[in-house]
Amino acid sequence: MADETQSTVPPATEAVPSDQAAAVLDIPEKELPPPTLVSVTESEVPLKSPASKEEEEVVVVETLEKRKPIDESKLPQNLVSFKEESNRVADLSDFEQKALQELKYLVQDALNNHKFTSPPPPPPLPKEAAKMEEKETSTQEVQKTQEIPAVSTEPTSDTPPPPPATETPIPESEITPQTPLTHEPKPEEDTPAMAAVDEGVETVPKQQTPSEEEVPKTEEEIFIWGIPLLKDDRSDVILLKFLRARDFKVKDAFTMIKNTIQWRKDFGIDALLDEDLGDDLEKVVFMHGFDREGHPVCFNVYGEFQNKELYSKTFSDEAKRMKFLRWRIQFLERSIRKLDFSPGGISSLLQVTDLKNSPGPGKRDHRLATKQALHLLQDNYPEFAAKQVFINVPWWYLAFYTMISPFLTQRTKSKFVFASPSKSAETLFKYISPEQVPVQYGGLSVDYCDCNPEFSIVDPVTEVTVKPATKQIVEIIIYEKCIIVWELRVVGWEVSYSAEFVPNAEDMYTVIIQKATKMAPTDEPAVYNSFKVGELGKILLTIDNPTSKKKKLLYRFKVKPLCD
Questions:
Q1: What is the pLDDT of residues 18-49, one digit of tens each?
Q2: 290 contact partners, CB below 8 Å, separation of at least 6
Q3: I want to staple 253 with a disulfide (CB 3.0 to 4.6 A). Which of 207, 246, 354, 389 is the partner?
């Protein structure tokens, strides 16, 4: 709890303007919140000597030129922002529904005929082959005996001698197309197979041809990301991903599916899921929170490779690069299997790539691994990125993006968002709520440590833009004795912060909770305060922004009952 210091200034002089206070207090009694709740208002007070508009614009330009290593106007910009489509069949256009049905037909045919299985089935064992051959020959001879009863009485002087007993008789199905309708096949009656029939071999009814017996018509079962193809409506979501990746060209989408299934088999995806590849890279790629639309957020922090030992351990030779690639694919596979593939579910991720201190294009080993990963992800993981947000983009990335851009589809590039270091937090907040953004990226999420037990990722954060050369006051009105706790930060700081309690009673004095303190960019990213309220009043949180730049204020609070 913060130290309570009595102020000599009367409460009236410390409060916000009287007309604003009246606006808050003149609420009908029936609309007042419950006693344990509070009311919040925000007011903006210009500083005594604000800079003119022209002066502010000049200062902004000069400051940005000094701080930014890259011209933001040269960052890659997309004219059309990507918007994720619905996976419900009823929401598809007639053309898209027709393409989906055609692709399902091709997939079903491939499953029925085992087209997704590249190697042929193994040959039967010798004993099984002999039994099958004897069964086929017996069937053929019995059928001939039933259809031509007088064959055995005809002379055979004009016919060629029977084949040696050591030769294997040729099935009728293989010689029929080449044999004219004469008496040439009669010598087969004297073969050992015919003798076997005469000795009482059981007659097999003519129900299936030999080819039908050799190739069973069981349907092949194929799983992709743990989902069996064509078993339920989740398959529609998977097929739509391949169709959209190929602009609804059915044959191209089917080819992509076949290639993906073959690649997954060659890469050993099923075994990879349970493989132990270590935890050296857990800070390089990790999942944290959800975006504003419910997509899980994956952070890629390549600045971790500034550690020379980690870089060498990951990229120094082909075997290590392959291990990194397998680790990255394993991480993605495990994340994908937690998604909801039902129509209307969340079946994609939001990817955030932090390029701060990332290995530059001069690092050949890293460049090779990145290029290889890019091809694998684009060819075998279609439509799993709802958005790709690149933050802390350095100057060299312009050349790198120009190099890889021809290998990316227009649909893929429409998902890209780029932000310079000065705009990274602001850009993230467009897609992710501040309470879901890790504290190192400007948010207030510290769920994965014990440093903030009062707040978690589920506690909402209020965002306020503090204009240049203004003072922002957050007023929290208290309706009952309680303990109030709050968390606050200004992205980039360079402001002054103070907190005070103003009681309602006229004979009480203002309590200074936090003296006005200048907060530098290197200070703690967030401040945490609490105050025991013994009488009704209001908490005033004041942010004084003397700079010529807009600032983003984030805060949240909780009210706890006061135990006697």
A1: 333 333 333 343 443 444 455 666 667 766 55
A2: 296, 297, 432, 436
A3: 246
